[in-house]
């Protein structure tokens, strides 16, 4: 609970009603698509600031740190000011603005709808459309993917983004209110745009990538435990395998966080995911995640169970956060 948000700043604190309504709307219709979407504005500002910093010779670690400071300061001031200005009219107006930002910064619903578009394309045997949709989620060659490969890539992205697209935003909103959520989205956008280990971004993107690791560290492990708990209570899933595979195989995937939810999902679904991956025409891995005795994920029913798992985990995570807020 953001106890430091008192007095006039209390309208920036997390609210259980706002959280519940934002989750319901996100799952029902997905992320709103429009030119002034907050994440799009953050991305445009990042591109402008990057050009400015590189233009004055700040292309290394210092430039990346200044990029974070500039983005975080700007967007914390902008969002905070808009909520506080609305609060001059009424508490209700402040909550409406708060709700707008919270809803706009959750992305589980949009991810679920995108995965379903991939599944629908595979189901109607339109591999070209499925591969195109998959390419929007993963940074790998998709031309070689068959229907099963498209489904595995979709479920892999769904399980990975369950953490940074939903559980982490909920975690930081509950903990630090709207400022915490905005700060997380700034860091997440930096990681997705400049957090690459390439010559251009190895130093400049270091700050965003490391901050993203830090801010997702606890939520990633909470997501693993949530998947274990849900899978243990629902038929056709395995809580035991979610625990074991998550614990033993999370480190096989890149980064300190993404492997927890991916490996746990593979165990819960009792299916193996990932498999052969090509980049620039070269096979870079043939790594399979999941119990070695389980079959590869390749059927329509597997994708449906993965979607159900993600939705239930998301709803229960939000419910737990809302209950915590209501008890404060």
Features:
two-stranded antiparallel ribbon; mainly alpha; 328 residues
Polypeptide structure, described:
The protein has 328 residues and is mostly helical. It contains 11 helices and 2 strands; from the N terminus they run H-H-H-H-H-H-H-H-H-H-E-E-H. Strands 1-2 form a two-stranded antiparallel sheet. The longest helix has 48 residues, at 147-194. The radius of gyration is 20 Å and the shape is globular.
Short description:
This protein is mostly helical and about 325 residues long. The protein has helices spanning about 15-30, 40-55, 60-90, 90-105, 110-125, 125-135, 145-195, 205-235, 240-250, 260-270, 300-325; strands at about 275-280, 280-290.
Measured as a percent range, the helix fraction is 55-70%
Low-confidence stretches: none
**Mean of all residue-level pLDDT scores:** 94
What general form does the structure show? globular
- Secondary-structure element string: HHHHHHHHHHEEH
